Amino acid sequence: MLRFALLRTLSAIPTLLLVIVLAFLMVHAAPGGPFDDERVLPPENARNIAAAYHLDESLPRQFVRYLSGLVRGDLGPSYHYRDHSVSELIGAALPLSLRLGLLSIALAMVAGIGAGVLAALKNNTATDRLVTGVAMIGISVPVFVVAPLLVLVFAVQLGWLPASWSSGDAGWRLLLPVVALALPQIAYVTRLTRAGMIEALNSDFVRTARAQGLGLLSIVRFHALKAALLPVASYLGPAIAAVLTGAVVVETIFGIPGLGQLFVRGALNRDYTLVLGIVVFCAALIVLLNLLVDLLYGFLDPRIREP
């Protein structure tokens, strides 16, 4: 297992480097500059600012300089928030985004696995068709549609929950964002769990357990569930990536001062280093979490472990 983890870690380095290169080129290919505004600066001031931030250098040299700082853990200064570095801005916004993402993933796993097991145990019944139909709707409707609908129903019309981060009781401000972010993932996890559970219940080892007189709940808990969770474990990596990307929309709609809203502001302000820093940080986080998912998959499926 250790060799497997080391190989996965080494194989992630080229992927992360490719993400950095593409993000660097795309950011610098955007029209305008980080210091462009309605008031045109005198040419001498513009040259001084460009020299201070090394923007007067060639693009390859800027990339080498950025990469050398990245290796040392320096994400560079923010062009828009002059008194803060990119690391400080990410560090301030990360706890809230991390809390939102972890709660969404936890809700998706609990609700999705529970609904998937129920649908599999009630296979080809009205309950199964209802669960799979709702799951299909959840997959089809994107987050930028779900979030405003939740605000319209539960905040505007019913008045039960706050519509934004700046309004309402602190204990309820994250409920609608977490639900909006988790609903599509609940749908995916439900369908994967249902398919895995149906396959596990029809397997030979479950038939043997039934022949030995074990009850249905014991079979599901101690035998079938672990095998049924293999597809869910494989989906955890894409689910985490979807939560990170969906958080940009959710945090913007609900006014949550997390990484998603910080990324949007950085893009609007042409803050190159801030946008690059968030992209690199999220890419590294996804690579790390995918590695943990692979290790979890190896724990659930002994066939891929090393002898």
Series of H and E elements: HHHHHHHHHHHH
User: Looking at this structure, what is the CATH superfamily of the domain at 97-267 and 286-304?
Assistant: MetI-like
Tally of helical runs: 12
Sheet/helix structural class: mainly alpha
Proportion in helices: over 70%
Shape estimate: globular
Gyration radius (Cα, Å) is 24 Å
Chain oligomer state:
single chain
Pick out the low-confidence regions.
none
Overall pLDDT score:
79
Distance between the termini: 9 Å
CATH topology of the domain at 97-267 and 286-304: MetI-like fold
CATH architecture of the domain at 97-267 and 286-304: Orthogonal Bundle
Sheet with the most strands? Answer: none
Determine the strand fraction and express it as a percent band. Answer: under 5%
Classified by CATH, the class of the domain at 97-267 and 286-304 is Mainly Alpha
Strand runs, count: 0
